[in-house]
What does this fold into?
Amino acid sequence: MKLTTKGRYAVMAMVDLAVNSDGKPLTLAEIAERQSISLSYLEQLFAKLRRGSLVRSVRGPGGGYMLARAAQAIRVSDIVLAVDEPIRATRCEPGSPMSCQGAKGRCTTHDLWEELSNHIHLFLSSVSLADVAHQQVLGMSGMIYRKAAMAAQ
It folds into this structure.
């Protein structure tokens, strides 16, 4: 299973918005510059995020985008799903009459991959945008990063 750039970039842009907006709209050009993401790609993502009610646009001078609700109320899974990024480790299409192996049915490892998909979704649903913005997603990668940063000082 692979989370594509669509989902990763959407989360990166939303974290940037949460961290840098200070209650004021941000332009996509500002986010694109800071995150090294194509402006046209961000425009496509933000159209989906707006339709998903995660951001709102402000028109006119000083306009741009703002979070539609508090960062604590937005889950990472909301962002990923809003940009049409499926959280699925199986190769089956949900609801399709064809299974993993076509007419042969489900593969022998189907339940394993289905449960992995469920765990990924549960994890992303447990993490808020605020958690990511304030670097409160704990785990081994965070501890390794902090130890390396402290050693470099």
Remarks:
- The chain has a mean pLDDT of 84.
- The longest helix spans residues 110-126.
